[in-house]
Write a structure and sequence with these properties.
- The complex is a heterodimer of chains A (197) and B (263).
- Chain A is of the alpha+beta class and 197 residues long.
- Helices cover 21% and strands 28% of the residues of chain A.
- The longest helix of chain A is centred in the N-terminal third of the chain and has 26 residues.
- By secondary structure, chain B is of the alpha/beta class.
- Helix content of chain B is 49%, strand content 7%.
- Chain B contains ten helices and four strands, in the order H-H-E-H-H-E-E-E-H-H-H-H-H-H.
- A four-stranded mixed sheet of chain B has the order 1-2-4-3.
- Classes of the chains: A alpha+beta (197), B alpha/beta (263).
- Chains A and B meet through helix 1, strand 6 and strand 9 of A and helix 1, strand 3, helix 5 and helix 7 of B.
Chain lengths: 197, 263
């Protein structure tokens, strides 16, 4: 009798545990699948869509990577590799000089309109060296959060905190970033619309 | 001492009991496994809660541009309520109370037009996406967005159709900038703009130096909520046509419907 009771208790415990495990797993919503290029082991710390580590030689298979678009020569020693992103007219880019990566840009839009959050980066990596408002591509309120000394910048919507793209480069100063990589930034842009006939 | 006899009366009862327990447990494991496999898939496909609007649930195909409906009932979609009569002295406050939008410096006539328009679109998601905005009257016909939910609209507009277009255009910028991409669908719009171009000449030109796609977004919102109106905005390459007329810009039209619901 006692033995039967013990068996019953064990069985009941197993059943309860199984129910809890199953309920816990059903609450999770499946994440949408997103196209994730093969990440570099260190740049994935910033974002999984970054493909290479700036400052190092580029992989020999770069042009056979998924979504490779084209390669153009910017000058004698500088090449630009373009890759399709989820924004059709904003390619992911890798720029190399003497076969070493000096700049990468990745659009961080994931499937289903999801973006990484600025707050997560700030929490992990601290405040940026500079915040620059205005983008020729994204619009007047878009901000570039420059972590020049750490070698990366985030471009995003300051009102929602959504990051639209991430850039990595050889660590520099804010001025150095602006002169080398800041051509998209248009500070002080003000839109006055004269709507009407 | 003899060997234990497993088939004494008490041992038979005990063994049967144990077998019953094992049978029960196996059945439960099978049932729970089936439930876990099917329910997880169904739950994740059936519902997605938007960050910005916890009561807003996607319906229909979760992978397609399904409309994110407002809290209003399905049966009222597509209806355009008539604005109730109200004393002009109370219009400004009524707009604040009813729609969460503050309008400063406008004439009673312009407030009346705004009141009519906000009622007209009240069954869409437009108000949910723009509430909290302050609209200041600006001199002449100059309009601009100066912050997330801060807009200036020219006070010189003396014609209701144009005023309503400008009002919804500027608030279209608010939708673009002040809501998560999941609600504003600005990334989807960007690709649609790349494919279809702009719904108006003004949006295509970027003639005021801003990225055309942001202007096209505001134009898409404005002309979706003012259907049948010929392009009114700006002197920049006005095409003089009804933007969504003749089956034009279907991707834009469907996207506007996804963002705002049926108008």
């Amino acid at each position: 009798m006692i033995r039967q009771k013990i068996i019953l208790m064990i069985v009941a415990t197993i059943v309860v545990l199984l129910v809890l495990i199953v309920l816990g797993s059903t609450i999770l919503i499946q994440k949408p699948s997103v196209p994730v290029p093969t990440p570099s082991p260190t740049t994935t710390k910033l974002h999984p869509f970054l493909m290479i580590e700036v400052g190092r030689s580029i992989p020999s298979d770069l042009t056979s990577r998924p979504n490779f678009k084209n390669k153009i020569s910017l000058d004698k020693d500088t090449l630009q590799y373009s890759f399709n992103s989820l924004i059709q007219d904003r390619a992911n880019l890798i720029i190399t000089r003497d076969d070493k990566a000096i700049f990468e840009r990745a659009i961080t839009l994931e499937g289903d309109s999801k973006h990484p959050q600025l707050s997560d980066y700030k929490q992990r990596l601290g405040e940026p060296d500079a915040e620059l408002e205005g983008s020729k591509f994204y619009g007047q309120f878009e901000k570039t959060y420059v972590y020049a000394s750490k070698g990366f910048a985030l471009v995003g919507n300051p009102f929602t905190g959504e990051i639209d793209e991430i850039q990595t480069f050889i660590p520099t100063t804010t001025e150095g970033y602006l002169s080398q990589w800041g051509e998209d930034i248009v500070s002080g842009q003000q839109l006055k619309e004269e709507l009407g006939k | 001492m003899g060997l234990p006899n497993f088939w004494t009366a008490s041992s038979v009862n005990h063994n049967l009991f144990t077998m019953k327990i094992i049978y029960l447990v196996l059945n439960l494991i099978i049932i729970l496994t089936l439930f876990a496999t099917l329910a997880k898939t169904n739950l994740s496909n059936a519902q997605q809660v938007f960050k910005g609007s916890p009561f807003c649930t996607k319906v229909g195909d979760p992978t397609g541009p399904s409309p994110c409906l407002s809290q209003t009932e399905t049966s009222s979609l597509g209806s355009r309520p008539q604005a109730p009569e109200i004393d002009s002295a109370n219009l400004r406050q009524a707009i604040i109370d009813g729609f969460g939008i503050t309008m400063n410096g406008f004439s009673p006539q312009q407030l009346q037009w705004a009141w009519e328009k906000f009622w007209d679109v009240s069954k869409t998601n437009f108000i949910n996406l723009t509430k909290g905005t302050t609209i200041e009257a600006a001199s002449g016909t100059i309009s601009e967005q100066i912050g997330c939910r801060s807009v200036r609209v020219g006070s010189a507009f003396s014609e209701p159709t144009l005023f309503k277009i400008v009002l919804t255009h500027e608030l279209g910028h608010v939708i673009y900038w002040c809501n998560d991409d999941l609600l504003s669908r600005r990334s989807d719009h960007h690709n649609i703009f790349f494919q279809e171009g702009s719904v108006t000449g003004y949006g295509a030109s970027g003639c005021l130096g801003t990225p055309p796609h942001t202007e096209d977004y505001a134009e898409m919102i404005a002309y979706y909520l003012n259907q049948g109106v010929v392009e009114q905005t700006a002197r920049c390459n006005n095409r003089g046509q009804i933007p969504f007329g003749g089956g034009r810009f279907l991707l834009h039209l469907n996207l506007a419907r996804s963002i705002l619901g049926e108008y």
